[in-house]
């Protein structure tokens, strides 16, 4: 039956495509011979130029192979990527003689004025921040760091547990055959962690919700399990503090989901007492610490306040010098403000309700006084410094602080992470992950071998210094390193407000050699911090002398 409006010639799109596939191709013989079938065929038209190609990537006749540079880019960009948010484009043009070291410098160093010493030095300053990744590069191979034998690995663990000190010559002639060097390398990769949950990445904890989300967390809904984890954590935390007090542990970190605490033994960072620095902090945390009787200071806030006072005094003196008849004392300048405040509430007195809002006014005045402190919440300037016996009060405060552990989210019920360079009760031995990669970099008209060594994990200050000492001997005093900092810990390089005198320092540091660190590492960490709120981003050694950028 005929359907109105239906065309039998209509075909669905799939049927049309099938018809196009069935059409004979030009190369196939035609079904019916045409009169001009024997005429010579017209040559095919030249291939159309790719509109997406450019002069740089268009095919050329004779061109030197580009595979090494591609391999180099694929190798090193994966390490140097994601260091900073404002990365330059990968396709940026570079000079013909640029090598991989220049690539590392240009791509992933912050756009700040570099803090480079005027002349190379034989030691770099102590960096108390935690590094998440190190990338060493050198013209000498890192084959000595590959495929450690079982005996060398075991010897490295034994040297760490016994705090054995390894002193290498200035230059190792055959690094790959040096058992002493390979054992010391394994020893420098060891650190201690609590809690130990192999299926979770427990550092960093700040901003780690995405990495932990979706993983098995049986304690999140089990209060009994949460109490058991916190009980074991408290024992480990107390054990670390006791070791620190006895100078058997040089320092340790407490990493929570909101802030990080660094405890340092007396004699380190230029202080003659135990110190603890907390960053970042909030007004609520500081208020809770005050209520517990913990005395602390805000070094960066006080420094900023002192700087502003000096600037204001200089400005007042300059104005007084220009117009002495109009100059006023600071006390005279403050009186009008007080009268203005009184006049602003005069209408409340007329209505007879001035007394009812007195309490609210007191709160507003208090908030106004603490305005400069509230403005630094969650910022590096909110760094809090606790010294001496107050650190023990801080220990008890952190153990009993309910806000130390997340109540909701992927980290709910998970105790903070404890990181230490030495063993402690409940701690688990862990090792940093290290691997070496070889590539080629184009230098002028030739390709040169460039070797790299990547170290991943929570790299603490002692590990960084130990690795540089080994590389100094193995790489013949020439290497460079790109350092990736856990940003919330960069402010730990702030200088403390008290420096130990020389005689007192000798007395304080008398028992520190028992803490298990190399004597040269201990000397470096004993110095007063000089990096401020920044950390070392790039480290280079040439002719056994260091230069760095922060």
UniProtKB/TrEMBL annotation:
Ranges of Acidic residues composition bias in the record: 332-344
Low complexity: compositionally biased ranges: 30-40
GO BP annotations, alphabetical order: nuclear DNA replication
GO cellular component: nucleus
Compartmental location: Nucleus
Transmembrane segments: none
Subcellular location, principal: nucleus
InterPro entries: Donson
The organism's place on the tree of life at top rank: Eukaryota
Keywords from the named record: Developmental protein, Nucleus
Disordered: annotated segments: 1-67, 307-345
Similarity section: Belongs to the DONSON family.
Name of this protein: DONS protein
């Amino acid at each position: 039956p005929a359907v109105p409006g239906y065309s039998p010639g209509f075909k669905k799109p799939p049927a049309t495509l099938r018809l196009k596939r069935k059409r004979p191709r030009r190369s196939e013989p035609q079904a019916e011979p045409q009169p001009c079938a024997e005429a010579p065929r017209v040559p095919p038209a030249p291939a159309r130029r790719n509109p997406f190609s450019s002069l740089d990537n268009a095919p050329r006749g004779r061109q030197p192979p580009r595979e090494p540079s591609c391999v180099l880019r694929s190798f090193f960009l994966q390490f140097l990527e994601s260091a900073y948010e404002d990365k330059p484009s990968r396709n940026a043009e570079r000079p013909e003689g640029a090598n991989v070291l220049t690539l590392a410098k240009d791509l992933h160093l912050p756009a700040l004025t570099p803090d480079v010493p005027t002349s190379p030095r034989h030691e770099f300053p102590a960096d108390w921040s935690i590094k998440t990744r190190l990338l060493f590069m050198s013209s000498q191979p890192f084959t000595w760091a590959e495929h450690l034998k079982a005996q060398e690995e075991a010897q490295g663990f034994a040297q760490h547990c016994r705090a054995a000190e390894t002193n290498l010559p200035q230059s190792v002639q055959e690094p790959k055959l040096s058992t002493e060097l390979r054992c010391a390398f394994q020893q420098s990769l060891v650190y201690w962690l609590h809690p130990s949950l192999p299926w979770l990445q427990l550092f960093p904890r700040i901003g780690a919700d995405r990495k932990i989300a979706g993983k098995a967390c049986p304690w999140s809904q089990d209060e009994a399990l949460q109490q058991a984890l916190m009980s074991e954590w408290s024992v480990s935390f107390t054990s670390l503090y006791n070791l620190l007090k006895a100078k058997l542990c040089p320092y340790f970190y407490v990493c929570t989901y909101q802030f990080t605490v660094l405890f340092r033994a007396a004699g380190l960072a230029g202080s003659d007492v135990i110190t603890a620095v907390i960053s970042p902090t909030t007004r609520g945390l500081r208020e809770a610490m005050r209520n517990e009787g913990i005395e602390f200071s805000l070094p960066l806030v006080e420094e900023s306040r002192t700087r502003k006072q000096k600037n204001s005094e200089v400005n007042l003196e300059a104005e007084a010098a220009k117009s002495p008849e109009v100059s006023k004392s600071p006390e005279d300048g403050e009186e009008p403000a007080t009268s203005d405040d009184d006049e602003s509430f005069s209408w409340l007195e007329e209505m007879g309700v001035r007394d009812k809002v007195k309490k609210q006014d007191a709160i507003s005045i208090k908030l106004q006084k603490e305005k400069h402190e509230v403005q630094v919440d969650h910022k590096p300037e909110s760094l809090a410094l606790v010294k001496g016996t107050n650190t023990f009060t801080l220990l008890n405060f952190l153990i009993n602080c309910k806000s130390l552990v997340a109540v909701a989210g992927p980290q709910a019920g998970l105790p903070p992470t404890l990181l230490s360079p030495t063993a402690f009760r409940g701690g688990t031995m862990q090792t940093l992950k290290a691997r070496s990669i070889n590539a080629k970099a184009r230098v002028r008209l030739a390709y040169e071998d460039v070797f790299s060594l990547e170290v991943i994990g929570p790299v603490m200050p002692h590990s960084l210094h130990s690795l540089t000492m080994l590389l100094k001997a193995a790489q013949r005093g020439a290497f460079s390193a790109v350092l990736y900092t856990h940003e919330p810990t960069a402010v730990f390089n702030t200088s403390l407000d008290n420096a130990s005198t020389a005689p007192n320092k000798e007395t304080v540091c008398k028992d520190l050699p028992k803490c298990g660190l190399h004597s040269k590492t201990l000397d470096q960490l004993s110095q007063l911090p000089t990096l401020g709120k920044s950390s070392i981003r790039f480290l280079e050694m040439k002719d056994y002398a260091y230069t760095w950028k922060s």
